[in-house]
Amino acid sequence: MTAVCREGTMRRAGEERMLRYTLKRMLIGVLSLIVLATVTFFLVRIMPGSPFQQGGVSSQVVEAVEEEYGLNEPIFTQYLNYMGGLLKGDFGISYQDPSTEVAEVIKRAWPVTASVGIAALAVSVLLGTGLGILRAVSEKRAVREIISGAGMLAAGIPTFAAAILLLLLFSVRLKWLPASGLLSPAHYILPVTALALYPAAVISRLTSNALSAEMGKAYYLFARAKGLGKWRAVFTHALKNAYLPVLNYVGPASASLLTGSFVIESIFTIPGLGREFVGSITNRDYTLILGLTVFMGAVVIAVNLATDLLCAWLSPETGRAYKKADGRQRK
């Protein structure tokens, strides 16, 4: 009975530590988002020119339009007004298209970027994990060398160069795949492949190295000595521990993929967040730049938080580290 009570107490203490850690990370995320919005606001304001100074518009007209939008007010007043609206969920309107709210642009472009990012993430995780496991488990040297060489090649080619090469080969020369847009599943193949090459190579290397190390440990060797097959021992025992370094990489990588690749979306003419962001900078659309930056920052923070919590749940060592850190703080 005493052992059961002690186990329940330890479990509740662990849940409390995880709750405190989660709340702490959420608070840090909110503060980081406020800092990001603040820095971006002032950087945007010191950009030369005006969002309305285009097409030979006279300076008098520019001043009148800026006064209408409150851009003639002191910069700190503008900052407080913007942050007040942001805290209410109001991203403002686009200066280049006053009839369109920034939230509408995000709502329109985000699903497009997310669809490409999720597909690239799935391909990179599945391909990288599979090749990493095969490289670690295979007894054939030729297989290991081919996977290693292909990974080095994929990791060494910049994403934009891979996109251009894929476009020239499969779209321009062979004419097998469409070159732009996202009108059908076939349109996803080239941009998803270009985005997935580098993370797949990194995941393959991380999985292979970590799994090779786990396969040399006592618990794996003991499982094999008991008669468990190699593949079953890998998937039952070793892969869970070996995958923690991969999860630590997948978090930031997935955040990057989900917020869009500016170069890929520009090359393949994909109407996503990346292309909208490039266009907003070109047009000096202050509110659109700020809105896209804050939204993409929120996605990055949320994905990284989810990854950290998943790693803490899977790794007992991480949980013990939180317990020690919590004990030091109390002292």
From TrEMBL:
<feature type="transmembrane region" description="Helical">
    <location>
        <begin position="246"/>
        <end position="268"/>
    </location>
</feature>
<dbReference type="InterPro" id="IPR000515">
    <property type="entry name" value="MetI-like"/>
</dbReference>
<keyword id="KW-1133">Transmembrane helix</keyword>
<keyword id="KW-1003">Cell membrane</keyword>
<feature type="transmembrane region" description="Helical">
    <location>
        <begin position="288"/>
        <end position="314"/>
    </location>
</feature>
<keyword id="KW-0472">Membrane</keyword>
<feature type="transmembrane region" description="Helical">
    <location>
        <begin position="109"/>
        <end position="134"/>
    </location>
</feature>
<keyword id="KW-0812">Transmembrane</keyword>
<feature type="transmembrane region" description="Helical">
    <location>
        <begin position="146"/>
        <end position="168"/>
    </location>
</feature>
<protein>
    <submittedName>
        <fullName>ABC transporter permease</fullName>
    </submittedName>
</protein>
<dbReference type="Pfam" id="PF19300">
    <property type="entry name" value="BPD_transp_1_N"/>
</dbReference>
<feature type="transmembrane region" description="Helical">
    <location>
        <begin position="26"/>
        <end position="47"/>
    </location>
</feature>
<dbReference type="Pfam" id="PF00528">
    <property type="entry name" value="BPD_transp_1"/>
</dbReference>
<keyword id="KW-0813">Transport</keyword>
<dbReference type="InterPro" id="IPR045621">
    <property type="entry name" value="BPD_transp_1_N"/>
</dbReference>
<dbReference type="InterPro" id="IPR035906">
    <property type="entry name" value="MetI-like_sf"/>
</dbReference>
<feature type="transmembrane region" description="Helical">
    <location>
        <begin position="188"/>
        <end position="207"/>
    </location>
</feature>
<feature type="domain" description="ABC transmembrane type-1">
    <location>
        <begin position="110"/>
        <end position="311"/>
    </location>
</feature>
<comment type="similarity">
    <text>Belongs to the binding-protein-dependent transport system permease family.</text>
</comment>
